[in-house]
Amino acid sequence: MIAVEQLNDKQLAQLIGTDKYDEELRRRALALRRKIYGNKIFVRGLIEFTNYCKNNCYYCGIRCGNNKAVRYRLTQQEILDCCHKGYDLGFRTFVLQGGEDRYFSDEILVPVVAEIRQTFPDVAITLSVGERSEESYQHLFQAGADRYLLRHETADEEHFAKLHPAQQQLSTRIACLNVLKKIGYVVGSGFMVGSPYQTADTLVKDIRFLQTLQPEMIGIGPFIKHKDTPFNDMANGDLQLTLRLLAILRILFPYALIPATTALATLADNGRELGMQYGANVLMPNLSPQAIRNKYSLYDNKVYNGDESAEQLAGLKSRMAQAGWEIVTDRGDPKRRV
Fold first, then answer.
1. DSSP for 87-99?
2. Contact 312, 306 (CB under 8 A)
């Protein structure tokens, strides 16, 4: 058996670069996940409330430089309507995700979070709205936000510079993650798999960074190109490599909440089920209004209806039950290492 926890950087890079041990990794990751979380799959209601973004990340379809994107913002009432719909469906975690939209200052976003907390006191509120000041993170936390997702995307400075304009810095991203931990958020981070110029060595740096950060949630997904970005002619990330890394992360972070991302389901019809087989234990069906789902286009061919939509929760439960998993709609808090 491969002692993943004891590998040095060179050995870990070699493991990442071969499919020789995939079945062993899968079995071990699955056994660990079942030992700690059983067969439970936690679902979160995803609300993509704005696709405006001040950043110009080269891989992202909602980058500010994409003048073909059809922009939208949900109002506070529209966001609350999504929460009401989700709550009635049984969701007890809401994920408010958006681009880094200057419109959603603390004056706008803090009351939204406070209203959700007051209306639904038993839910977990997760934010994924990028880099903000420590003061802003504190205000949002005090208003009732519990969790924060901020993927670092790559922990290699040289690689980060190839994916982002010069005004965006890896050091800023890392500082934000550390502040979020200090404030008391349940923190999630993660990275793309197969992004342009990525190597096994940069993936090792991603894993080592996560081992330092020790987030409670880890989100990874394959890079998928978008036609209206500078990376429109790059190859998509590899499904099997993503699954291998899911297993490695489950082994190294047995208590983490790890989603099977929409990007996995975009690459393969059974991507969600495969993700579960390799150690994932979270799904995030879409609660956003139907009319805007196709506008939150981070990459080409993103799935946003079918089992990805919250309205199809019953179908998702049935599909996962057939694969041996039990969908649960409670808060799904992370378990702590004992």
1. HHHT--EEEEEE-
2. yes
Q: What is the mean pLDDT of each run of 10 residues along the chain (338 residues)?
A: 92 97 97 95 95 96 94 97 93 96 98 98 98 98 98 97 96 98 98 97 98 97 94 95 98 96 86 93 91 85 59 79 87 82
- Burial letters 271-294, b for 16+ CB under 10 A, else e: bbbbbbbbbbbbbbbbbbbeebbe
Contact by Cβ (8 Å): 61, 229: yes
Q: How far apart are CA 7 and CA 285, in angstroms?
A: 36
What radius of gyration do the chain's Cα atoms show?
Answer: 19
Tell me which residue of 206, 119, 215, 126 sits closest to 170, measured CA to CA. Answer: 206
Instruction: Give the contacts of 29 (CB within 8 A, at least 6 positions apart).
Output: 246, 247, 248, 250, 251, 278, 279
Instruction: Please list the helix, strand and coil fractions of the chain in percent, rounded to the nearest 5, in that order.
Output: 45, 15, 40
Is the C-alpha dihedral spanning 174, 180, 184, 189 positive or negative? negative
Phi, psi of 179 (to 5 degrees): -65, -45
Distances (CA, A) of 256 to 32, 40, 162, 252, 318: 11, 13, 29, 9, 25
Residues 75, 78, 84, 89: is their CA dihedral positive or negative?
A: negative
The full set of domains in the chain, from first to last, is 4-13+22-328 (3.20.20.70)
Q: Which long-range contacts (CB under 8 A, 24 or more apart) does 113-122 make?
A: 113/140, 113/143, 113/144, 113/145, 114/143, 114/144, 115/76, 115/80, 116/79, 116/80, 116/83, 116/144, 117/143, 117/144, 118/144, 119/80, 119/83, 119/84, 120/83, 120/87, 120/94, 122/92, 122/331
Contact between 140 and 109 under an 8 Å Cβ cutoff? The reply is yes
Q: DSSP assignment, residue 8? A: -
Distance CA 54, CA 321 (A): 41
